[in-house]
Write the structure tokens for this entry.
Amino acid sequence: MCGIVGYIGDKSPVEVIMTGLHRLEYRGYDSAGVAVVNKDGLGCIKSLGKLKILDAKLEESPLLGQTGIGHTRWATHGVPSEVNSHPHFNVAKTIAVVHNGIIENYYELREQLKATGIEFRSQTDTEVIAHLVDKYYQGDLFAAVKRALKDCEGAYAIGVICKDQPDVLVAARHGSPLIVGLGENEGYIGSDVPAIMKYTRKVMYIENGHVCEITRQGVKVEDVNGNPVQMEVKNIEWDDAAAEKEGYPHFMLKEIHQQAAVLRNTLGGRVHEGSDEVQLTDMNISKDELKACKKIFVVACGTAWHAGMVGKFLIEKFAKVSVELDLASEFRYRDPVIPENSIMIPVSQSGETADTLEAIRIAKSRGAQVAAIVNAVGSSVARESHGVVYQQAGPEIGVASTKAYTSQCMAFALFAIWLGETRGVLSKVEAKELITHLRQIPDKVDEILNNQDKIKELANRPEYRDAVGCFFLGRNVNFPSALEGALKLKEISYIHAEGYAAGEMKHGPIALVTETFPVICIAVKGETYDKMVSNIQEIAARKGLIISVATEGDKSIQAHSKDVIYIPECFEAFSPILVAVPLQLLAYYIAANLGCDVDQPRNLAKSVTVE
Ligand code: AGP
């Protein structure tokens, strides 16, 4: 989730680019850089850390030119560092590239280019693009970029400039967002509207597979095979605040809608096309350590703890390793017994949660290998762990965690398959089958996001919207889904919601059920479906207000439910990722209908850095 800006025209490219990058800082900010074409060739300044550090460097050594590109980074491949920050160059430094996305076959391309004698400067996938453009460059940058992208698989939004063609800015998109802005004798590119809205409101939304040649005279758009594409120019009506939310009323709703793309990012670069093998290169756990491991400790807080519960289920099911799950705030005070060869997996979106950090320190002090699942690149959790799986969800602004949760569940699924294969518990055929199921998840999330009418209608029904309390019930791998659904609703709508294991109702909680008490029951097809239906019938017998979350095509569930929210058929073990989405939307629309401050609920903070 990086930020890209480019400019060609008579303004100062650095001024336009830095203004735009600051408007994109919410997309990622572990490092940044700018490159411009000037009479001496390509000038470039980069910096580690926040944009203000780059500002200071540019203040000290102004970068003059006429065409430029800039980038603020949310690292995916290669740690945050100046050498890994964008722009990246070909060997002769005559071509510069900025990139948002993941080139999934970068490793193969990198090896091929290295075999021709090219020495790479960085650890990034992006640098591969610069060398490929150089390989195909014969005086026409637009043609070279089109040809280079034919070799690339994965997601990209790129900006490219060339010393020998100062009057040309080339951009392209596949999977990652990109817009082109039109001015008088000038052109802009940006990751999204806020980047260029100060200068122009006339934009083209670039589609997947399109490549653009931007000059002072205008924009030419073709597909990678050189077929011309007619683009519509739209006029942006948003105000600044709306622009950062890309038109959504709240960051939370925007982030809910990012989940299909985020899940493709989480998968991207870890399950290579064709190989169908999981690669978690930054975990820093050797095969011997993985094979010797007898116990895994999963430690987290809040929503991350719910993801950890899903992770426990997946690791024990597919890797047959015992998992102990703890709330970080409890783990640190219970004097845990940590056997030899243990692994701890802390889970954290912000990577700054105090209790989770303390749990890491305790585990390390008792000899555990710590491999974190974390979203914020370069965060304390990432730095204090031995290894890391970055969620690649991009910055999550809404206090209520949504895309971070589903990407954590996806990361656990990848880890469980990787661990199962490494330990010889999963055959290659079984692993391939699981990966096939995982690959289908993002499209199924999109299906849910494209069919929200029922959820919006339920969220405005007084019996649900004005409820004083409610239950979320689930079983098995969807017990954490019930806990997460309840947390989502309570933390943004302030309705008292509790998540329970459905089998637990008879042991007390069912005393609360009345005809004005909503019970959201997760009853997707799976091993415990029949048991779940029995629990629903027990609730119905007490006239509870039942909303069931069920699998498309399941008509029988309607007999026991007042309302049903359907989700696409899904491999049960991975269904929490899908189940989360309608429950996030239900919570969001109820809270919005109640006029709550959805992005910044009362009493809450995005990162709990205190105990
Ligand atoms: C989730 O909606 C909450 N905002 C909260 O429970 C959060 O998940 C918890 O504080 C953990 O945060 P972390 O993932 O940044 O460590």
Summary: The chain has a mean pLDDT of 92. The pocket of 2-deoxy-2-amino glucitol-6-phosphate is lined by residues 301-304, 348-350, 353, 356, 399-401, 491, 607-608 (CB under 6 Å). The chain has 20 helices and 24 strands.
